[in-house]
Every structure is written in C-alpha cells, then in structure tokens.
Amino acid sequence: MPKGKLPRRYNTIVMPLILSLLMTSIVSAISIVRAQGRLTAPALAMWPSAWALSWAIAFPVLLLVLPVVKRVTAVIVEM
Fold first, then answer.
1. Where exactly are the transmembrane stretches of this chain (predicted)?
2. pTM more than 0.85
C-alpha cells in the first residue's frame, strides 16, 4: 500500500462520500440560485445550511443504494 493512501476496503465509504459532497454542493447551489432568481449575497449565505441538509440525506442514501446500482449496472453493461 502506497504511503498516505487508505486500504482498498475503504472504497465503499470514500467513493460515496466524495460523490455525495460534490453532487450535493452543486445541486444545492443551483437550487438556491434558481429559487432566488440570481446569485445574491443572501443566496450565498443560505447555501451552507442547504448543502449540509442535502448532504446529511444524500450520503446515507448513497451508502444504501450504491450496491443495488452496481448490480443493476452489471446487468445492463457488459463487463
């Protein structure tokens, strides 16, 4: 194992963690800007709490559904 890297077994946690962080930050920002009509200081101030709530929901959901998604993908995509 190279220095500074986690063992392979942590992949099932790290991948959904990174995916949920990126997706919820982008989606919550788009949702707030859309609701405000434009990018404003209040919209920027609202974003961290909106992001935190969406991430708190998305990360556990990803942990639960990712194994199912992998199986469905294996049925659809030739490996």
1. 12-33, 45-69
2. no
